[in-house]
Design goal:
Layout (H helix, E strand, L loop, with lengths): L15 H11 L3 H13 L5 H10 L12 H13 L2 H4 L6 H12 L3 H14 L11 H12 L2 H10 L1 H12 L6 H5 L3 H18 L6 H14 L3 H13 L3 H17 L7 H20 L3 H19 L8 H13 L6 H13 L7 H14 L3 H11 L7 H14 L1 H6 L1 H11 L4 H14 L4 H7 L19 H13 L14 E7 L6 E9 L2 E2 L3 E2 L2 H6 L8 H9 L1 E6 L6 E6 L5 H5 L5 E3 L2 E12 L2 E6 L2 E6 L7 E6 L4 E7 L1 H10 L4 E4 L3 H11 L6 E3 L8 E3 L4 E7 L4 E7 L17 E6 L2 E6 L2 H13 L13 E4 L2 H13 L5 E3 L17 E8 L2 E11 L2 E4 H10 L4 E3 L5 E3 L2 H13 L1 E2 L4 E4 L3 H7 L5 E4 L1 H15 L14 H16 L3 E3 L7 H12 L5 E5 L1 H14 L4 E4 L6 H7 L4 E6 H6 L1 H6 L1 E7 L11 H7 L2 E8 ...
Parallel strand pairs: 1-7, 8-12, 9-14, 15-19, 16-21, 22-29, 30-35, 30-36, 31-33, 31-34, 32-33, 34-35, 37-42, 38-40, 38-41, 39-40, 41-42
Antiparallel strand pairs: 1-2, 2-3, 2-4, 5-6, 7-8, 9-10, 10-13, 11-12, 16-17, 17-20, 18-19, 22-23, 23-24, 23-28, 25-26, 27-28
Helix pairs in contact: 1-6, 2-4, 2-6, 2-7, 3-7, 9-10, 9-12, 10-12, 12-13, 12-14, 14-15, 14-16, 15-16, 16-17, 16-18, 17-18, 18-19, 18-20, 19-20, 20-21, 20-22, 21-22, 22-25, 24-25, 25-26, 35-36, 36-48, 38-39, 39-40, 40-41, 47-48, 50-51, 51-59
Length: 1405
């Protein structure tokens, strides 16, 4: 702490009074200053005696070394009182007090002041007064000035909002010196700013330094990690009329909530969820999405009540007011009761709600909406007695008056104008509402209209429009109608069940426990146990179904006397003899020991079993009990029998005994008589002796599959029913061979063939591959999802053998018979450049589905099954599914149906192969014939072409000529160096007699194009657009045999001129230049009018599939539909790995793209060797890189949750900084210019070795700055080189290239983007890439400058990358990127785009 001065740093005062008071303070005598400092530290509640006491305890001395005595203290206080400082030290929000607080803690005696303060706390000398400052508030104040971040952190971690509220009395209205504020720790700076913001939102007075304050808040929005701060800032941005900024804060809050998610629904987590919902609701409300907003507000309220454990509470503060306005904006009189309930609940907590006056204003608006103007008047009059109003509450009060009586508002126009002026720069939403009112009542509405129409205004609703106000009599009449006529309940869309009951059963001991589960995205949560009292009372109501009600009805509710008999207790629980029986057949029974294990409970009766025994016959019960009971018996692993032993069976058991009774053989006739007499009784008899003469039937061995729906799939259990559908179930191959049952009141016997039952079931299971590896035991299977279940049902339906399916009520899944393409009929009709596609699929005799609807449903589902309106699932053959996928991708919706571009006719014809009926018109047939005729066209290479084409080049010419003959555009995508130029010139020469041709190329290769045309096609007249004196005259003079060569830059500049001219052929060289359809060069290219459009590029897709759309929008406009349609149909599905979408896109573009690689067609090209050399950094350079990397990650993590594009820009900027650091430290950290740089050192060693062996090399880097460093190093070593970057003029580029090809210079330094295309540099046999580029295709093109036709020596390519850095990570991406270019051409399935998370993963290493 400074010890040399009592003078504090300057704090900007806010008024003349503050200036005067601070001047008085500065003029104080030293003793009076000490007293002022002591008073500032101790607080406003310590008077003279208290100050003397604490000064004595702290041994505070005066400048002359003497102790502070009563006389000096009295004189000093007198001086402070005379100049008003004593009172200023006791004021809240005092600028002067703030100034003196800072000075006190910079006083050399500050430690004594703090010691005195501690003594004051121990001695309890505080005097209660109007200026009472609690001990907690005093400690907070001192912690702020002491910059004690640990103390503030402890407070804000527990109660952030409460902490900030307590600080408003000190800092709420202060103008703070930016330097002092920046000197505070981040948590303290945040606390001060939040205190100022809360003060502003509460009192409504914008801080005097509001512009600076707003900038500080916006910085805080980007950096804070405190959820409470984000919530308050979101409210501020809402009142600022910025749903966009509010949405950004919302996304950050969601990220924090997800990071803090423990999976437990704690009160804090639920309160966060409520905040997220109400902020999202505010965004929707301001943006005009009222229905969505209302749903979110209701959900926020539900969560808020859950977190606070209060049922009669409403959303407080701004969110509650906007929720009420949202409900009003619905304009539904039937919702007024809900609004009234909200307002009553808000009134209960009005003492804790700074916006409580706003809720009274809502009452006024509600009364107006109900036509009760008298109630509105009385409520408005009562509100006038309130003193405090927040800006929003005040505005709503004025809005209510405006809605009630505009004339009254007009009389107060001046007052409202002042409020408009106050808030137009600080709370635009509030100001807009005033502007909207004043525009209606003011004599001069222009300034208000201008404000409402300001350019930077976000598109939000006006709060004056939340209600449509009619005349008072009309409002009253409408409300009367509401009271007299019962409103019809609005139809609500079917909601997904949010909660459900499950029943946990312990199979070993039979205990039962009800549990309530809540749905989540991927199923249900673990749930919470419910008491039986809660379930039986059903308060609050539970979401239950008929199965649950059956179980609940079985529960026991009664009274029991206490153990000593002194009292009676109410008891709730399962009934020992009813509840297990009620759970039989319930679809949601789970094992209490393993909640993931679902159980199936089935009722099973006790049987009287008669069997052969030694010396006679044994009669016994299958289950014995000495009292009525119900218990569980395992049948399979997850299937349990519920066995009931009723009283009459207990009595039978008492006669027979636990082990049964043995009857001697001479009692045989009596047994037979007893059995015959007992047939049809309540106790089933299972006789295993032949003597019982009951007519027997051959038991049915047909497998019976019991199907029980579980969460998203099916549980399958196998049984047989020997007696048919009305008889009991038995396990196949198990139990007795001869069984008895009561059928239609008569006892019947069935003889079972156990081996045949097992064989029939085995055959069925073998015919259902879906059951493979799904077994839970010998006779149970579980299919986890709907798709597997449908596959299984389809297999069962196709099974030829006998099988019977049993479903629970309302749980049946029905599948149609297998439908193939032969059931589909398609109609094709011409419509300009398109063909309309319609048709139908006949599912059965009674059901036909429209093709458009079929394609839409198929697009929303996966697999071979589509759900129909009647609940059934349409089962399709794999071929039909593939055809629908292909047809859905090839066609697009146009509002009337589906349509397909004329150029896609052949792909559609292929997709419809095998369709039952194809009804096409004349134009379709002509189009197909035109395509076939183009395929039969055999063009000859023009005799005037002065070049001998290789075989593949001749084939390329014929391919181009056929497409031109058809009238379609083409993309020649041969590998770099394969002679795309000469193939294009050949087709130009063929079509030149029909009209002029335009060639658009990068500036660097325009001259080369002119030279190549003159060399290979002398009959053509070449004109370079750049050299033309009068360009318009030149263009108009062009005719057959003329070729105009221009750059992309001139194309854009002269777009109007060049687009007016009809061209025979338009050629785009290096067509990846138009990969971004939004650029001006791309748009200018699209405007060219040509009979044949040709794109030349070695990389039709560099990064994203949208690049392919742009390319095809030039060569065949409309073929791929709109960009939005293309993204939906192809780009997004392909990125997700959708093979069908990729195949469909390939079918569409395949006829118009021709790509050959060097390895496939140039067996005579010299060998090409590629090697990656990893560079190791020394310790200093590695430390610098790591520091930059950690700093980059920190900056990214502190970014707000912005839109993906904006966030990605920040991430890429940090990545670029690290990549530059890998090249040379000085490129990222100028202070590191003294470092040599590991990559530069290794490069120079490599150059020395190359020159010793007489090699020449091309050196590429994407960073001109790094090339400058390389040039300087080469100059120092006297190494000759040539140089080219994006700033090199065209003529100079040509000069440099020719010189290098002629032998001048050992190295050619080239910036990657400037010289990576269009150059022929075969004089070099080595290529060095100093730094890896994102897209390896760009590097490959650059390497192709040397490895191309004309190269006689093997070419070696070196890639330098720094080990353990982001460069090595980029190299790891190159494999996928190379596959991307081949995705549509070679059939690979690589995806393209890097997400933000993947980019951040590169940063993390």
């Amino acid at each position: 702490m400074p010890q040399n001065s009592l003078t504090p740093p300057t704090v900007a005062p806010t008024s003349t009074d503050d200036d005067r008071s601070i001047a008085h303070y500065e003029a104080l005598a030293p003793c009076a200053k000490i007293v002022a400092h002591l008073k500032a530290i101790a607080g406003p509640y310590v008077e003279k005696d208290g100050l003397l006491t604490v000064a004595t305890v702290a041994k505070l001395t005066l400048p002359d070394g003497t102790a502070l005595n009563p006389q000096v203290l009295g004189e000093s206080i007198g001086q402070l009182k005379r100049n008003g400082l004593w009172n200023r030290l006791g004021e809240a929000h005092s600028q002067v007090r703030h100034h003196i607080n800072i000075a006190a803690l910079e006083d050399p005696r500050s430690d004594l002041y703090l010691k005195a303060n501690q003594a004051a706390e121990r001695r309890s000398i505080y005097q209660f007064s109007n200026h009472y400052e609690s001990a907690g508030a005093r400690q907070l104040r001192l912690a702020i000035y002491l910059n004690d971040d640990e103390f503030i952190t402890d407070y804000t971690d527990k109660e952030p909002a409460e902490t900030w509220n307590r600080l408003t009395q000190f800092f709420g209205l202060l103008v703070l010196e930016p330097q002092w504020l920046e000197s505070r720790a981040p948590v303290i700076r945040e606390a001060i700013l939040m205190a100022k913001l809360l003060s502003f939102l509460y009192y409504g007075a914008p801080p005097a330094d509001f512009p600076a304050f707003l900038g500080q808040l916006r910085d805080l929005e980007r950096t804070t990690l405190t959820p409470a701060a984000l919530i308050i800032l979101a409210k501020f941005e809402t009142l600022s009329g910025s749903p966009a900024r509010t949405a950004l804060l919302l996304s950050r809050l969601r990220e924090l909530a997800e990071a803090d998610d423990t999976g437990k629904a704690t009160d804090h987590a639920v309160l966060m969820a409520s905040a997220i919902e109400h902020i999202a609701a505010m965004v929707d409300f301001l943006s005009g999405r009222n229905a969505e907003a209302l749903g979110r507000f209701r959900e926020a309220l539900r969560l808020f009540r859950k977190a606070t454990h209060k049922r009669k509470i409403f959303l407080p503060d701004i969110q509650g007011l906007l929720a009420s306005l949202c409900l009003l904006r619905e304009g539904d009189p039937s919702l007024m009761r809900e609004l009234g309930s909200w307002l009553n609940d808000a009134d209960r907590d009005s003492g804790f709600n700074p916006n409580y006056i706003g809720f009274w204003a809502i009452r006024v608006l509600s009364a107006i909406a109900r036509g009760n103007d008298r109630e509105a008047e009385l409520t408005l009059a009562a509100m006038a007695k309130s003193l405090h109003r927040t800006p929003l509450s005040r505005m709503l009060e004025d809005l209510a008056e405006f809605m009630l009586d505009r004339k009254r508002t007009g009389k107060r126009a001046g007052e409202l104008h002042d409020l408009f002026v106050r808030y137009k720069g600080s709370l635009p939403l509030v100001a807009e509402t005033y502007a909207a009112m004043l525009e209606k009542v003011s004599d001069a509405p222009e300034p208000y209209l201008d404000f409402l129409d300001r350019r930077d205004r976000e598109p939000i609703i006006l709060l004056t429009d939340v209600m449509q106000v009619d005349e008072p009599w009309q409002r009253a009449l409408d409300h009367l109608q509401t009271l007299l006529v019962a409103p019809s309940k609005p139809e609500e869309p079917a909601k997904k069940k949010g909660k459900r009951l499950i029943w946990l059963v312990d199979p070993d001991i039979g205990t039962i426990e009800p549990v309530e589960q809540t749905s989540k995205r991927d199923g249900w949560n673990t749930g919470r146990a419910l008491s039986f009292r809660r379930v039986i009372k059903n308060d609050p109501p539970l979401e239950v179904d008929e199965d649950d009600r059956r179980v609940i009805d079985s529960l026991h509710h009664g009274f029991e006397r206490s153990i000593y008999g002194y009292s009676v207790n109410e008891v709730y629980g399962p009934d020992p003899n009813k509840t297990l029986l009620a759970l039989a057949g319930h679809p949601r029974v789970f094992d209490a020991n393993d909640r993931n294990r679902q159980l199936e409970l089935v009722r099973y009766p006790v049987e009287l079993v008669i069997s052969e025994a030694r010396g006679g016959y044994r009669i016994a019960l299958s289950h014995f009990a000495d009292a009525p009971t119900v218990f569980l018996e395992p049948e399979t692993r997850d299937r349990y029998r519920v066995i009931e032993v009723p009283l009459d069976v207990v009595r039978v058991g008492a006669l027979l005994g636990p082990d049964g009774m043995t009857v001697p053989r001479d009692g045989r006739e009596k047994i037979i008589a007893m059995v015959r007499k007992s047939m049809g009784g309540s106790l089933p008899i299972r006789s295993e002796i032949d003597a019982v003469d009951v007519p027997a039937i051959e038991g049915s061995p047909t497998p019976v599959l019991r199907l029980v729906p579980i969460d998203r799939g099916l549980r399958v259990s196998a049984f047989v029913r020997p007696f048919g559908e009305d008889g009991p179930h038995y396990l196949p191959g198990h139990a007795g061979k001869s069984v008895l049952a009561l059928i239609d009141g008569k006892t019947q016997r069935a003889n079972r063939d156990l081996e045949r039952e097992k064989a029939e079931l085995a055959t069925l299971v073998a015919s259902c591959p879906s059951l493979a590896e799904r077994a839970l035991g010998d006779l149970d299977w579980e299919l986890p999802d709907l798709f597997d279940s449908l596959e299984f049902l389809s297999e069962v339906q196709a099974y030829d053998g006998p099988v019977q399916l049993e479903w629970p009520e309302e749980g049946r899944i029905r599948v149609t018979a297998m439908t193939s393409a032969e059931s589909m009929s398609v109609k094709l009709r011409a419509a300009r450049d398109w063909f309309q596609v319609s048709g139908e699929l006949r599912i059965d005799e009674n059901l036909v589905m429209d093709l458009r609807e079929l394609l839409e449903r198929a697009g929303r589902t996966q697999g071979r099954f589509i759900q129909l309106d009647d609940g059934r699932f349409l089962a399709m053959t794999e071929q039909l599914r593939r055809q629908l996928d292909r047809l859905g991708s090839l066609t697009e919706g146009d509002g009337k149906g589906r349509r397909v571009h004329r150029m896609a006719a052949s792909a559609v014809e292929e997709a419809l192969e095998g369709a039952g009926k194809l009804d096409s018109d004349k134009q379709w047939r002509e189009q197909i014939e035109k395509i076939r005729a183009a395929g039969r066209h055999e063009p000859k290479v023009p005799s005037t072409l002065q070049a001998e084409l290789r075989d593949y080049q001749a084939e390329g010419f014929r391919w181009l000529s056929r497409l031109a003959h058809w009238g379609a555009g083409a993309c020649l995508a041969d590998d770099m160096g394969l002679g795309k130029t000469v193939q294009a010139i050949a087709v130009m020469l063929e079509h030149a007699p029909r009209g002029a041709i335009i060639v658009v190329a990068p500036t660097s290769v325009c001259h080369n194009w002119a030279a190549e045309i003159e060399r290979f096609a002398p009959p053509l007249r070449v004109h370079q657009f750049a050299n033309a004196g009068d360009r318009a005259v030149l263009v108009k003079s062009l005719g057959p045999m003329d070729v105009l060569v221009t750059s992309y830059g001139l194309l854009n500049l002269e777009s109007a001129l060049l687009s007016e001219t009809p061209w025979q052929i338009a050629v785009l060289d290096e067509a990846q230049a138009i990969k971004n359809a939004a650029t001006k060069r791309a748009q200018a290219s699209m405007m060219l009018q040509a009979e044949f459009r040709l794109a030349l590029t070695g990389t039709p897709v560099e990064n994203y599939l949208e690049e392919l759309w742009s390319l095809f929008h030039f060569i065949n406009p409309g073929l791929l539909g709109s960009l939005e349609s293309f993204r939906k149909r192809f780009a997004l599905p392909i990125e997700r790995g959708d093979r069908a979408a990729r195949q469909s896109l390939k079918a569409l573009v395949g006829p118009f793209i021709l790509r050959r690689t060097k390895s496939a067609v140039l067996t005579e090209l010299p060998e090409r060797t590629e090697q990656t050399i990893l560079v190791d950094l020394d310790d200093d350079e590695r430390a610098l890189y790591e520091a930059l990397r950690r700093r980059a990650i920190e900056r990214i993590e502190n970014l707000p949750g912005e839109a993906a594009g904006q966030r990605k820009i920040h991430i890429l900027a940090e990545i670029t900084r690290l990549r530059r650091a890998c090249c040379h430290p000085s490129l990222a950290a100028p202070e590191a210019s003294g470092m040599e740089g590991a990559k530069l050192s290794l490069f120079l060693e490599l150059v020395d070795e190359l020159l010793r062996n007489r090699h020449k090399a091309l050196v590429f880097s994407q960073y001109v700055g790094f090339l400058d460093i390389v040039r300087k190093a080469l100059d120092e070593r006297g190494i000759a080189y040539k140089y080219l970057d994006g700033q090199t003029p065209a003529r100079e580029r040509e000069k440099q290239v020719n010189a290098f090809q002629a032998g001048e210079g050992d190295l050619f330094l080239i910036s990657l983007k400037a010289g990576g295309t269009g150059l022929n540099l075969t004089a070099a046999d080595y290529v060095i890439h100093l730094d890896p580029w994102w897209n390896p295709a760009v590097e490959d093109q650059a390497s192709g400058r040397a490895h191309r036709i004309g190269q006689q020596r093997p070419v070696t390519i070196y890639r330098l990358a720094v080990a353990g850095t982001i460069e090595q990570g980029i190299l790891g991406l190159h494999k996928d990127k190379r596959q991307m270019a081949a995705e549509l051409l070679d059939g690979s399935e690589a995806s393209a785009k890097l997400s933000d998370e993947e980019l951040i993963g590169l940063l993390r290493g």
